[in-house]
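Tokenised fold entry reproduced for everyone:
>
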Amino acid sequence: MTGLLAPFAYEYMVKAIVVSGLIGGVCAFLSCFITLKGWSLMGDALSHAVVPGVSLAWLLGLPFSVGAFVAGVLAALGMGWVKNNSRLREDAVIGVVFTSFFALGLLLLSLYPSNLNLRTIIFGNVLAISDPDILQVFVISALSTIVLGMKWRDLLLYCFDEGHARTLGMNTRFLHFLLLALLSATAVAALQTVGACLVVAMLVTPGATAYLLTDRFGKMLIIATITGVVCGVSGAYASYFLNGSTGGCIVVLQTLVFLVALVFAPKHGLLAARTQRRVAAIAS
């Protein structure tokens, strides 16, 4: 029993477990809207687009979260502008913009060498997170959760049927940019935990898992959030014993949970689908 409690004897592990659970829950809550809207690629794009913002923030002496958030918003606005003024499909626009931002970030890091560790930006390092960074994560997470809690019904209708939301008089343009801002802010917070490469997994996998397990959005939010928190805490805890990447442990655990849901979900799982096909074949 003493061995199982060993991670809690180290302050850096306690911080990592708490922050991972917090980020896991916030990302999972938002992932339900991302899944419903079909914005998986957008999450990937914004998580990479924040890299030049981090570089510029260091050069200007600003908090990294400010630079990353501004870069994420600018990337989102750039995607919207290109999409509205060209014949390109949305996936092509996302690919062009986010790779351009990511490349710009790499260029800035190479032109202006600093104490920024590219590996930390790409893969995260929650075990070395500082107290000011923890405070930033808590503030971003709290604000994102409050906004989502206040506007979740409007965002649900917008994500489910944008045209219907428009006919009801909702300001869909505002909801569009609100969701983008929340996505950018959450990606910035998760950057500290799993890095730019794995943020998209935390922003998509819990929502996708919950989507397989229920048809009710309220339950989907609960299932996804619990999954995100449990995987965040368990992944950080397990990384101590495995001596492996904390972000990698969290995302692999989320993926395993998703695979279990994919196979065994009572209504939308692979086994359920096979059973339904057999019943249909017998009935016919």
